[in-house]
Amino acid sequence: MVRLADVPEPERSVIAELECPTYEHSPFTPASAPAERHVALVSSAGFIVRGERPLLPRETGYRSIAASVADKDVLCSHVSTNFDRTGFQQDLSVMLPRDRLRELEQDGTIGKAAEVHYAFMGATEPGQMERSARELGQSMLALGVNTVVLAPV
């Protein structure tokens, strides 16, 4: 992760001035045993599947990435001078650890790895993404997902 002091101006000032949103409530969800968890990944790397239109900066929607999509067909549309793609280009699991999740499922640590994972564009103000995030949350609940691993970039 880049330190704010290492980000060049004027981008550093813009980032430093961002306010973290506050919410009226924080819903409580009781924890389930790890072996009962149905786990999905949610990334802020702007991932797309080869052939899809790239996610644009400040875009508020998200993309679905089926677990069956080959690693070579998962592309990163997040571009920044502060963003080193080297690790991702060598191993997708650095940013979207689908393989590790499948391993946890196979050894019984978790109940099930989701069939679909998701990506938002990280270069978006969180408050603007709330509607899409709530929509995605409802969709995941309908699919039986009860645990989400956030994979920020």
Topology summary:
Blueprint: H1 11-17, E1 38-43, E2 47-49, E3 62-66, E4 74-76, H2 86-90, H3 98-106, E5 112-113, E6 116-120, H4 130-142, E7 147-151
Parallel strand pairs: 1-5, 1-6, 1-7
Antiparallel strand pairs: 2-4, 3-6
Silhouette: globular
Helix content: 10-25%
> Total number of helical segments?
4
What class would the helix/strand composition place it in?
alpha/beta
Uncertain residue ranges: none
Strand content: 15-25%
Strand tally: 7
The largest sheet is: 5 strands, mixed
The H/E string reads HEEEEHHEEHE
Span from first to last CA? 8 Å
Radius of gyration based on Cα positions:
16 Å
Instruction: Give the tally of structural domains.
Output: 1
Short summary of the structure?
This protein has 153 residues and is of the alpha/beta class.
Write a structural description.
The chain has 153 residues and is α/β, with parallel strands linked by helices. The protein has one domain. Helix content is 22%, strand content 19%. It has 4 helices and 7 strands, in the order H-E-E-E-E-H-H-E-E-H-E. It has helices spanning 11-17, 86-90, 98-106, 130-142, and strands spanning 38-43, 47-49, 62-66, 74-76, 112-113, 116-120, 147-151. Strands 1, 3, 5, 6 and 7 form a 5-stranded mixed β-sheet that branches. The protein starts with 10 loop residues before the first helix and ends with a strand. The model has no long low-confidence stretch (mean pLDDT 89).
